[in-house]
Design goal:
Layout: H1 5-32, H2 35-60, H3 62-74, H4 80-87, H5 98-109, H6 113-116, E1 119-120, E2 126-127, E3 131-137, E4 143-149, H7 153-162, H8 164-174, H9 181-190, H10 197-210, E5 217-218, E6 231-235, H11 242-245, H12 250-271, E7 273-275, E8 283-285, E9 291-293, E10 299-301, H13 304-319, H14 323-333, H15 344-352, E11 364-365, H16 368-379, H17 396-411, E12 415-416, H18 418-425, H19 436-458
Parallel strand pairs: 5-9
Antiparallel strand pairs: 1-3, 2-3, 3-4, 4-6, 7-10, 8-9, 11-12
Helix pairs in contact: 1-2, 2-3, 2-4, 3-4, 3-8, 8-9, 12-17, 12-18, 13-14, 14-15, 16-17
């Protein structure tokens, strides 16, 4: 894994030269080829280029690989060949060697994995930007997933974050035509948190305890006695991947999307925290709307003060249809400069797009094109509001979650009455259950509250 800033810059430069040389070599053949032959040559060029990009970013790990992961599900304008290749980075990045993974276990736990665990699979079943995951059986017989951090990844991330020009170059390739400054700045600020597995363990347990017994949402518990700063051991979860779900019938895809939507909304408005890394490789699906949520390395916690302007903006626009109050809420939150010389109608048009799934009390299908339009609007630096708008630091991860949520639901072509589902969860509405999943969730919530009251009485 390349760790120095100079080495990583050179690797990307060599990649660019290979791509350019490959295109130049093909150009005479393209000029004189028939239409069908030209199409085949271009497809071959795109495929080889995409594979080269994936291999390079996968071997580099860190922030560069994270950008590739995000590109695979957010940017609908990326050619399909690239999107399919980049999607491999979600779960199938090149792993570290068996000896290197074992050495991390020894360093962190004082003994090799075959002594720490009753059984240890030396081959990882998932490898991503920060670490890779192995199956194991504990000494007391529990099946677990053991995430092992890549040695030196903290130094790699520090190198990437300092090399802003490098990150922006990669981001521009991943998201053509978009202003990627916000994306790069957010990535640089937040990625450092993901290398602290003790922090991740605390966050994962927060979610696991909150969603204990939920009918469709599952978060695996952490095995704390087998977890350290660079090794995170959790209950093993087996399920279908996001790619598998894309082949399921539309009813199953709708239910999966509803659960993902409920998880994001409930975590924000009820738990006041959520997983800040929403790429599809972090979900496992079990049918009938049941989804397991993994990887809590980037968890954002909100205070009541953080949420107040967001809740006020939502109520003002969606419930009360009050554009002026909506604008004032955005100004208070820092999304819009106070007194910006733009009409309120323009503000509503620009920012209201992010609420469009909940404007109407009617079923709505979220398509890939719709999700891509929201991403383009978010990164657009040429609109009339661009000089006067910003994403405040407290809400940068929230915007990433919103974009990721739209991208995932759009990939599923999911249909639901998103407004009614949202009203069940919004604390200022507390609407009745609107779907079978909602009815099951309402029963779970009632049981959870009853248990909490009982605990409070005995305390």
């Amino acid at each position: 894994m390349r760790q120095s800033r100079l080495g990583r810059s050179a690797a990307l430069a060599r990649l660019a030269l290979r791509i350019g040389g490959r295109s130049l070599a093909k150009s005479p053949r393209l000029i004189f080829a028939s239409v069908d032959r030209r199409r085949m040559l271009r497809h071959d060029l795109a495929l080889r280029t995409a594979d080269d990009v994936v291999e390079t970013l996968g071997s580099m790990k860190g922030a560069l690989m994270k950008l590739g992961q995000m590109a695979s599900y957010i940017d609908e304008d990326m050619p399909q060949t690239f999107r399919a290749a980049m999607a491999r980075l979600q779960r199938d990045a090149p792993p570290m060697s068996l000896a290197l993974a074992s050495s991390v276990i020894v360093d962190e736990m004082g003994a090799p994995p075959d002594r720490i665990f009753a059984r240890w699979d030396p081959l990882p079943f998932a490898a991503a930007s920060i670490g890779q995951v192995h199956r194991a059986i504990t000494l007391d017989g529990r099946a677990v997933a053991v995430k092992v951090q890549y040695p030196g990844i903290a130094r790699t991330i520090t190198s990437d974050v300092r090399n802003v020009a490098l990150l922006r170059r990669v981001a521009a390739a991943a998201f053509p035509g978009l202003d990627t400054r916000s994306l790069v700045d957010e990535l640089g600020e937040r990625l450092r948190e993901e290398v602290d597995y003790l922090l991740e363990a605390d966050n994962q347990e927060l979610f696991a305890r909150y969603y204990e017994g939920h009918p469709v949402i599952h978060v695996p518990h952490v095995v704390s006695e087998l977890s350290t700063a660079r090794v995170l051991t959790s209950e093993l979860v087996v399920g279908a991947s996001f790619e598998d779900v894309l082949g399921w019938n539309q009813r199953e895809r709708n239910m999966a999307a509803e659960t993902i939507n409920r998880f994001v909304s409930r975590s924000l408005y009820r738990l006041h925290a959520f997983n800040g890394d929403p790429h599809p490789g972090n979900y496992l699906f079990h049918g009938q709307g049941r989804v397991s949520f993994l990887d809590f390395g980037l968890t954002k916690h909100f205070s009541a003060e953080d949420l107040a302007p967001l809740v006020d903006a939502l109520r003002s626009l969606v419930i009360e249809n009050d554009g002026e109050r909506f604008r004032a809420s955005l100004e208070r939150a820092g999304f819009l400069r106070l007194g910006a010389p733009v009409p309120t109608a323009t503000v509503v048009d620009r920012f209201g797009l992010f609420y469009s799934t909940v404007f109407r009390d009617a079923p709505m299908t979220v398509t890939p094109a719709y999700a891509a339009a929201i991403v383009r609007r978010f990164f657009d630096a040429s609109g009339p509001l661009a000089p006067y708008s910003d994403v405040p630091r407290a809400y940068v991860v929230l915007q990433r979650i919103n974009l990721g949520l739209y991208a995932v639901i759009g990939s599923l072509n999911a249909t639901a009455n998103w407004r009614r589902i949202a009203e069940e969860i919004w604390p200022f509405v507390n609407g009745p259950a609107s779907t079978p999943i909602g009815e099951a969730e309402a029963r779970w919530e009632a049981d959870r509250m009853e248990k909490q009251v009982s605990l409070d009485r005995t305390a």
